[in-house]
Amino acid sequence: MRVKVGLKCEECGEMNYTTTKNSRTQSEKLEFRKHCKRDKKHTIHKEIKLKS
């Protein structure tokens, strides 16, 4: 089952992106290196739960 998750910047704490993941095959939290609009540089973004 695919679940909608948010990606939160580690440096500024702002949630900048949303994505989906298959919760059955990927149990660990997602971590991507994405561009942060507030810091204007690439930072690590980690998965957070979205309120549904």
Keywords:
elongated; 52 residues; 60% strand; mainly beta; 4-stranded antiparallel beta sheet; Rubrerythrin, domain 2
Topology:
Elements: E1 2-9, E2 15-22, E3 31-36, E4 41-49
Antiparallel strand pairs: 1-2, 1-4, 3-4
Quick summary:
The chain has 52 residues and is mainly β. It has strands at residues 2-9, 15-22, 31-36, 41-49. It has a single domain (2-49), classed as Rubrerythrin, domain 2.
Low-confidence stretches: none
The assigned CATH architecture is Single Sheet
Distance between the termini: 15 Å
Question: Please, how many helices?
Answer: 0
Strand content: over 45%
In CATH, the homologous superfamily goes by the name: Ribosomal protein L33
- Strand arrangement within the widest β-sheet reads 2-1-4-3
Could you give the count of β-strands? 4
**Percentage of residues assigned to helices:** under 10%
The mean pLDDT is: 93
- Supply the CATH class: Mainly Beta
Main sheet attributes: strand count, strand direction, barrel closure: 4 strands, antiparallel
Number of domains: 1
Shape by Cα distribution: elongated
Question: What is the CA-based Rg, rounded?
Answer: 11 Å
The computed structural class is: mainly beta
Q: What is the helix/strand order? A: EEEE
**What name is given to the CATH topology?**
Rubrerythrin, domain 2
Detailed description of the structure:
- 0% of the residues lie in helices and 60% in strands.
- By secondary structure, it is mostly beta strands.
- The protein has one domain: Rubrerythrin, domain 2 (Single Sheet), CATH 2.20.28.120.
- It has a four-stranded antiparallel beta sheet, with no helix packed on it.
- The radius of gyration is 11 Å and the shape is elongated.
- The mean pLDDT is 93.
